[in-house]
Amino acid sequence: MSKLLLSGGRVVNSTGSSDLDVLVRDGRIEAVGRFDDVPLGDDVERVDVSGRLLFPGGVDVHTHLDSPMMGTTTSDDFASGTRAAACGGTTTLVDFAMQPPGTTLLKSLADHHAKAEDKAVIDYSFHMCVTDLYDGATDEFPEIVQSGVSSFKVFMAYRGSIMLHDGDMFEVLRKSAALGGQVCVHAENGDVIDRLAADLVAAGRTGPGSHEIARPPATEVEAVHRAIRIARMADSPLYFVHLSTEGAVEAVAEARSRDWAIAGETCTHYLTLDRSLYDAPGFDAAKVVLTPPLRTQEHRDALWRGLRAGTLGVVSSDHCPFCLEEKRRLGEHDFRAVPNGGPGVEHRFIVMYAEGVRQGRLSPEKFVDLVATAPARQFGLPGKGSITPGADADIVVLDPDGTTTISAATQNQNMDYTPYEGWTLPGAIDAVYARGDLVARNGRFVGAEGRGRFIARTTR
Ligand code: URP
Ligand code: ZN
Ligand code: ZN
Questions:
Q1: Whose Cα sits closest to atom 2 in ligand 1?
Q2: Model-level pTM?
């Protein structure tokens, strides 16, 4: 039996903040209160966290670890990716189990389990990507959902590889809904994007900066409207991943005002990085070849407003890392072949704290809701996302007077760049506890290998 007392800190939950001690026993939070005068016994490890903020461990519901994509594999596996997450204050991931072409859903899911087992250092679960709705695919849905994978992802882009057409998306939505599952939608109009991209290549504009031009805001907005209508026809809830535009926020707000079960997330990079990064010289723009692309200030303002208004409920990282050299190898002569994605799982928590709370855009409680409490609730992760009795003791100890400088040279992500290179932010994560274990100290992993557990998630 292990007991830990974090004393003297300020506990910040999505529901409020107070100066309270946290008593942890056997990986769970036993009590939150003032224990100065309470005899707790000699077997308690006491840690003084005076002057520190205690946040629930981050819950990142959008990562791609050890994932096959666009002719390559993401550069972080479950060991390096979850270590990086832990060092950055994230203690739970929901990762996308990709369905490679020609592979059944159940086999794809089993393969993804095998990649994570004994490697993950924090708790994790999966969404099931459906990229090929072969005959009998939906017959596998009940087993998938019963195994604790209660959400699916479909792509409205990447025509000819992983994109589903509307009829197949409709089928996934209604079969998932019948099981109490939910569907995550990547909303971009893949047909239009492919035409625009082909025009650019034909005009000789083959560099990575063209990625943004081929994916104007309207390609997202149109797909969001269409997906909402298809979800209504399927009588299904729907969760939009990685929304990036003002028009998408407006569409989700309108749907929610009608009391439709439509939810939306955005990602750290859409809130903090500008499209001007596509104007970088040489091949550097490939660092931000992400889908959807980065946008202008106008869209960022709309995303922050959408978070405050509750239209968007979650901020995830969409950690989908490919080293720059790998992007160059595949796409130096044609931006369409640059693997789409970038790193972010390690820096989501501190960037959102700095850019949200410290810039006055979010209250500390709203920050907690967006990076921990709401994602846990949205995806059925009981015991995660709050510092309350009975919850898992996943706790981030943050020094508000410290600073964090982000750099590829010091990051834990298995990457040769970070889009936040050189950013110095207010706040420093001193320590991270996952189910009561100290797993990170001052940005370095100090926990045990392979300690993470698969979490079977609940349905709606
Ligand atoms: O840039 C990204 N997001 N890469 C592909 C994975 C995804 O979420 O679509
Ligand atoms: Zn996506
Ligand atoms: Zn993604």
A1: 341
A2: 0.98
